[in-house]
Design goal:
By secondary structure, the protein is an alpha+beta fold. The protein contains eight helices and 19 strands. It is globular. The chain binds FE2/S2 (inorganic) cluster (FES).
């Protein structure tokens, strides 16, 4: 797990409350799992596409009040299709978004089989500085997301703070062995049925599996009452998430095109990436940073190979991209790090401009293309 997750305990406190944690500084966190009615797939393509467009527009309209991240669960669970992870300040905004989603043409075909409401809170098992950082979530935007509701036994809360701290120290030590996995612990006491909602972000599902297995051996695990259902989710842009619902006549998705051997996909308008700027887009299910410097356009994996920071938020200079988190610098043409702490190269993509658009491919550029990386 990364340092930022620190408190990382699936444990909580029965003490505290307002006071040191003014309610205005804590965040409301909502995990809404939607399921699509199969009847929706029998609608004409144009109606389905209009429904997707409307839902995307609704979510965009809340961007001043809520951080909303979208994930597809299609094919990974049988009882849910899409997750909208929402982070905001007010319950009313969470409710208003749910209402507006149901008012779209997709609304009559959507149900919400799983719904988890929580808030951020300082952990009592970490240093004051780490605890303070827990009041605001900073999603890592990793490719995979794992979520489950969590309940401790009542015996846990009868233990002394010292006994719980000792077990949590061991629990935290296990977590620190897995820096590729970032934990977000949120608290639901009194707000919802569970006590916590824990979510993990990573690009390495195997690391998450190993972490969870190792935690089963920790003494604190004896005090787990419930930690299911577990949701394995794939991070995608909202439009791409909706496209994973699939239906007869749908345009072929970028991922399917790649699987079928097609090379080039239009991913952005040329004007979206001005000189000296970077923009994150999704390509075949991956986050890619488009970067323009001078007359040259580049496309590289958006996740820093050190600890997953979003490189599109970094700085561009002299054909190199510098990570905003710890300063690793990558050669945009080769993806190789020229300055650490990163020591692994980034994936690079073939890129060209045509018809006012930016096109990507995962294979070697087609001869005669205008530019490549
Ligand atoms: S995340 Fe550490 S250098 Fe990029």
């Amino acid at each position: 797990m990364s340092d930022r997750q620190a408190g990382r305990g699936n444990s909580g406190s029965s003490s505290g409350g307002r006071g040191e944690e003014a309610s205005g500084r804590r965040q409301i966190v909502k995990f809404s799992f939607y399921r699509i009615d199969p009847a929706w797939r029998q609608l004409p393509v144009a109606e389905r596409e209009a429904g997707k467009d409307a839902l995307v527009a609704v979510v965009d309209g809340f961007s001043d009040r809520l951080q909303v991240r979208s994930y597809s669960v299609v094919g990974l669970r049988g009882d849910a299709d899409i997750l909208l992870w929402q982070i905001g300040e007010r319950l009313e905004d969470i409710q208003a978004l749910a209402t507006e989603v149901m008012r779209t043409p997709l609304g009559p075909y959507l149900s919400m089989p799983y719904s988890y409401l929580a808030m951020t809170r300082k952990s009592q098992y970490v240093s004051p500085a780490e605890a303070e950082a827990h009041l605001h979530l900073h999603p890592a935007e990793s490719k995979y997301f794992f979520v489950y509701p969590f309940v401790k036994t009542r015996e846990w809360y009868q233990l002394s703070l010292e006994e719980r701290q000792e077990m949590m120290n061991a629990h935290i030590a296990v977590g620190r062995k897995y820096p590729s996995v970032k934990l977000n612990t949120t608290y639901s006491f009194g707000l919802d049925d569970q006590e916590f909602v824990v979510s993990f972000e990573t690009d390495e599902p195997a690391d998450f599996l190993d972490l969870v297995m190792e935690l089963r051996g920790a003494k604190s695990s004896l005090y787990t009452l419930s930690d299911t259902p577990i949701f394995t989710c794939i991070s995608l842009g909202l439009r791409e998430t909706l496209d994973t619902l699939g239906a007869p006549g749908d345009p072929v998705s970028a991922a399917a095109s790649q699987a079928a051997g097609e090379q080039w996909q239009r991913v952005a308008d040329d004007a979206d990436v001005p000189d000296g700027a970077a923009k994150m887009i999704y390509f075949a299910g991956e986050q890619v940073a488009l970067v323009r410097t001078g007359q040259q356009l580049y496309a590289v994996a958006n996740r820093c190979s050190h600890a997953n920071a979003s490189l599109a938020e970094g700085t561009v200079a002299d054909g190199a991209l510098t990570c905003p988190s710890h300063g690793s610098t990558f050669d945009l043409a080769t993806g190789e790090p020229s300055c650490g702490p990163a020591n692994r190269p980034l994936t690079t993509y073939a890129v060209r401009t045509e018809d006012g658009g930016i096109w990507l491919a995962q294979r070697a550029p087609v001869p005669g293309s205008t530019s490549g990386a």
